[in-house]
Write a structure and sequence with these properties.
The chain has 3 helices and 13 strands. The chain has about 210 residues and is an alpha+beta fold. It has a single domain, classed as Alpha-ketoglutarate-dependent dioxygenase AlkB-like (Jelly Rolls), CATH 2.60.120.590. The longest helix is centred in the N-terminal third of the chain and has 14 residues. The structure holds 2-oxoglutaric acid and fe (ii) ion. 2-oxoglutaric acid (AKG) binds next to β6, β12 and β13.
Length: about 210
C-alpha cells in the first residue's frame, strides 16, 4: 500500500482504490456547530443541468469555494470559486493535516432531506489529476453513499454520519462510481464538503451531465 495518509485505518475498498472512513472525526458538539454555521453561512444555490435537450434542476443545493483561479466545471457550467470563509479554512486545515495534502477548493452540497440526492458518477475530471485524493466531510443526517465497481458491478455501501471524514484515494475514481441515493428514511438535512485539489484548468465540459 502506497498511501501517504497518516491514518492507519483499514482500506474499505476491496480492490482498485483506497477508501478510509474516520468516524466522528469531529465529535458531536463541534460537528453541531459546523452544521449550523455552514447551513447558515454558505452561499447555497440551486443548479441546473442540461440533459436530453432540457434544463433540469439538480436535487440538492450547492456552493463552490476555493483559491482564486481554481476554476471548476460542474453541471456543465464553469464555476468561479467563492473566497474561503473562516470556517471552511479551519476545516481545510484539519483535513489537510490528516491527508498530508493541500486542497485548493471545496464543493459543498446540501441535501435538504431524503428526496435530495446525487446521481452515480466518478470524480475523474481531468483537472483533478490522475489519482485524486478527495476528502469528504459529512454533517447532519446520516446518508448512505453507494459505490459501484465498473466491471464487476460489486456494490459497497458506506454510511456517512455527522462528523465523519471519508477519504477517497488511489485508483478509486478509475474503477468505482458513487452515488447518494434518495431515501425515505432521511427527514433531516445533510451537508457534505468534498475538498479537492485542482491541478489544471479545463478547456471542455468535464462533469457528466447525468448527476
Ligand atoms: O454527498 C456525498 O457524500 C457525495 C458527494 C460527492 O460525491 C461529490 O461531491 O462528488
Ligand atoms: Fe463524488
Amino acid at each position: 500500500m502506497t498511501s501517504t495518509l497518516i491514518v492507519n485505518d483499514q482500506n474499505l475498498a476491496p480492490r482498485d482504490g483506497e477508501l478510509y472512513l474516520l468516524q466522528a472525526f469531529y465529535p458531536q458538539p463541534i460537528a453541531d456547530n459546523y452544521f449550523n454555521s455552514l447551513r447558515q453561512n454558505l452561499a447555497w444555490q440551486t443548479e441546473q443541468i442540461h440533459i436530453f435537450g432540457r434544463w433540469v434542476q439538480v436535487p440538492r443545493l450547492m456552493a463552490w469555494y476555493g483559491d482564486a483561479g481554481a476554476d471548476y466545471r460542474y453541471s456543465g457550467i464553469d464555476h468561479q470559486p467563492l473566497p474561503w470563509t473562516r470556517e471552511l479554512q479551519a476545516l481545510r486545515t484539519d483535513v489537510e493535516a490528516v491527508c498530508r495534502q493541500a486542497f485548493n477548493s471545496v464543493l459543498a452540497n446540501l441535501y435538504r432531506d431524503g428526496r435530495d440526492s446525487m446521481g452515480c458518477h466518478a470524480d475523474n475530471e481531468k483537472e483533478l489529476g490522475p489519482n485524486p485524493l478527495i476528502a469528504s466531510l459529512s454533517f447532519g443526517e446520516t446518508r448512505l453513499l453507494r459505490f459501484r465497481h465498473s466491471r464487476s458491478r460489486t456494490t459497497l455501501d458506506i454510511e456517512l454520519s455527522h462528523g465523519d471524514l471519508l477519504i477517497m484515494a488511489g485508483e478509486l475514481q478509475h474503477h468505482w462510481r458513487h452515488e447518494l441515493p434518495k431515501t425515505r428514511l432521511a427527514k433531516q438535512a445533510r451537508i457534505n464538503l468534498t475538498f479537492r485539489r485542482i491541478v489544471s484548468t479545463p478547456t471542455s465540459p468535464v462533469l457528466s451531465a447525468t448527476r
